[in-house]
Fold:
Amino acid sequence: MGQPALCSIVSTDSPLPATAPWIVLKFGGTSVSTAARWATIRALAHGRRAEGARVLVVVSALSGITDLLKAASQEDDVGARLVIAEQIEARHVELAHCLELPQSAQWRTHMDALRHIVQMETAPADLIPWQASVMAHGELLSSAMGADWLHAAWLDARSVLRASDQPNQSERMQRFSALLETQPDPRAAVELAGLGEILITQGFIARDVHGGTVLLGRGGSDTSAAHFGALLRAARVEIWTDVAGMFSANPRLVPDARLLRRLDYEEAQEIATTGAKVLHARCLAPLRGPRVPLWIKDTERPQLAGTEIGAEAVEASPSIKALSMRKGITLVSMESIGMWQQVGFLADVFAQFKRHGLSVDLIGSAETNVTVSLDSSENLLDSDALATLAADLAQVCRVKVIAPCAAITLVGRGMRGMLHRLQALLAELGGQRVHLISQSSNNLNLTFVTDESAADALLGRMHDLLLQSGALRADDGSIFGPSWRALYAAPMADTGSPWWRAQRVSLLRSAEQGTPKYVYHLPTIRERASALRGMSAVDRWYYALKANSHSAVLRELARAGFGLECVSPGELAEASAVAPETPRLFTPNFAPRDDYAAAFDAGALVCVDSLFPLQKWGDLLAGREIGLRVDLGVGVGHHEKVRTGGSGSKFGLPLADLPAFLAGARRIGARITLLHAHLGSGVLDAAHWAGVYVQLASLAEHVGTLRALDVGGGLGLPQREGEWPLDLAALDAALWDVKRAYPQFELWMEPGRYLVAEAGVLLARVTQVKDKDAYHYLGIDAGMHSLLRPALYGAHHRMVNLSRIDAAADSLYQVVGPICESGDVLGTDRRMPAGEEGDVILIEHAGAYGAVMASEYNRRGLPAQEILE
Ligand code: LLP
Structure:
């Protein structure tokens, strides 16, 4: 898509040629309500004109004015209507004052007309047309004011936009939710060009076949802008609103929702139809024929990239684009024993819906049951309407109404080809009441209908799972932009440029000595260590050395005051060899008896996480000081395989066994001095550990002999664009809230990843490139044997071509290793410069769970490791 071609026209203030293209700019209610926003509108309109385009500005009424007009139109008392008209006048006068605009004759004419109309007595037969003309005044007033402010020519939208005749619709629908004629009048563009170079007109209003005023219903101004865009065959239509564009989910419920940078008409239409409020679904249809692109932009922050919608789909692998939600869904389940195969049964059933004027949305069917959904935004649903429908349906089947429900829809082109990525999402839905699943026949959506009460929370979890599983490819920057949180929440602390940029030359040189190779930057480890040590609530830190047990790393962290948390005799031995004086914690799982014995001998504090060692190895534990790891019943983390709590996980003593454990320990004289829990890895929610802390503290009373509570590790780092780094200050403050209530216990933590992940990179070299079907493969000499995380967890590691760091990233690669497994993929859909054999690829965040999880699979040998002091 990109910037439409306006370049044939020289930017100039001299009159535009007849061939100059049009740009339609539409501004909604909040965008026309303040002087600051009008300043933006002027800059935009004049800016587009300076680009060489004719500009048509379409405006809504000031926010709140349509509601006031509606109230006036429903008011019987003329005096009360006049009071409302005065309020409306005062709002405009105040805004004009802020804009330092004198009251123009044109604006005054509309205001006087409104005063006049609201004083009219109307016969019942004229009520609906009268109401429509009262309500049209919001746009008439705002556009008249805008014409003065922009020095633009004022256009009455009703002289151009005509509603089509809809004989089957009620008079009310025809007046208040009119449909516009889609056949543009080719003379209109010429006529409008004759009016001026910058025009302003009203959204939301049009005329009917008799010349009367009609309204376009919800989202009507978007529809007006789209029709003007189509009529003028505009270079584009820009919808200026209060958010940067369409997001992958409602950002008010899911702050991690990603901005959708580019969509084609069908996908955008689907997202709008299934719940997104930012754009009205009706407004895309007119643009498709003439292929006019539509942009959505934020008036408050015009510099933000928005959403571009156009005819061409972006070249990219299939991805879920959005998760939309509609509430207020009513399901009607119709049970018909034995009648299903009778000819005409469905026709009979649906005839009832037609008779009651209700439009059906989703349909699910079985041999004896048909269930359909009714969308409250498309139907005038009240309990009477439903009761009468149900009564009529009862003549042909048994009826059950299920409400209120919510429909949650996954939208993306080629939905059926993405089912394999929805495993985790389906597992989550398995625990919910899902009443209906429906897949659209255009292969663009998959909808789940659930209880409305569960939907808000479910939406966020489903979005997380889509991100984690790679079904929503947030890493593809040509489609997805930053998260709402990153765009709108308080600015993220600047984490600066990664350390390896300054080391690029020496890293390239090092790669010449052999790849794959891990390189660890000790200064970065020191920085992370001191950031954690700055958290005053934590009394003792242990480094979980399973993340990276390189001796230089251990030495560094022991020097920085970290104890070492080990899970095997091998780790204990390494810890003793490198830092013999450093305290050690031993927290194994299903380890053999000898491991525990060795750990006691090595002087470590040993943690037990089941009844078995107490019951079977009483002699070993008798008289010892021990730790107890409990399972608090839930797991957390970046992937199901790293969640270490809950009934599906093998870790921790279930709380139901706590009394038996305490009794057993007492019996053999083992003293429990540490209570421990670790729920998982890669957690970015600062509130998590305080939650664990408070649960452990409340269990502590039952134990009696405790000195310390260990809330585990798991501190995460953002892996994908738009994720938010852990707020250590907030984490510390949350821990303090608990600590103040339980000052008698020391607080321990045992992070691994947080200390070492960013300090490590994996260097690899390009082996071969290959194009196969739609895919471009970039082969490198590191594979799942060097870095297992992408294959095992679908983990996302950013990667760059270090040899071509400044080249344009214009190829879309599947980055793969040399191992004979289809899962040997290190990165999917990575935009990188075109690679050549021998180029050095740098893989980020490889310092944790990288080399330690490497293998010699395929007899390819272990990766090298190197330290940068
Ligand atoms: N404490 C215990 C008891 C643990 O089991 C772990 C990690 C940690 C602390 C440290 O967690 P961290 O702060 O590093 O998240 N291989 C996976 C991570 C598995 C973590 C296992 N236990 C990955 O690459 O993401």
